[in-house]
Design goal:
Length: 253
Amino acid sequence: MTNLMELMKTSAYAPLNARTIDYPATSPSHASMLSGYCMEDHGVIYNRFFMYMGYSKGMDVFNLAHDAGMKTVMIVSKEKLRQLAEPETTDVFEVAYGEPAIERTVLPQIEAGFDLMFIHFAGGDNRGHKYGWMSGEYLKVLREGDEVLGNIIQTLKDEGMYDSTFILVTADHGGHDRNHIGLLIEDYRIPWIAHGPGIVPQELSLQIYTMDTAATVAYALGLPLPEDLDGIPVYQAFGETQIRTHEKYPCKY
């Protein structure tokens, strides 16, 4: 993944010790990533599209950005991720299946302008379940996604937006064999790479959880942080004193 590795050279990153929630499934993990809350607090305790269950609870990062008058965009590769944010908080919501479709959908949104954009790649998860994590087909789709990332970065540069754009690359879970149901530590390990304005390139030493992603994005955008967040901004990534760290895993389960 040459584009991602090049991005890491000027990023603050966790060397494969960031972790997701104790139920490493797609919907609950993504809800924690975007809301900053543990699963028992955001309420997405299922991994299917149950509309009657409502949306992720709490003030997720899309709520915060929309309330601040920002243009919000969500591009996903799985329809069930609609439940991560209420429709009224996303100015643009599109479902794009496959890496080529993601690129065709994302690049025009960059050119149109945005303030907050979430881009979801499902290829690794889909290929992992079908062929196995770290299989040849799995690695192939990661390379395809990396090519899309490179084109996203180039479009940001062409539009004069790259230097002013905060980019955070992470995942909802890891995986082994053909699943990620929490049997091995590989199911919980996730990448966490922050790049952009204010970021001090470094290997981060503190324990990062997926709930910290929403808190860090909100901090980078200058948005108010809800007092009841389970996640905390990774101040260290900005070269600042880490005001608070996780003394233990912040979720109950």
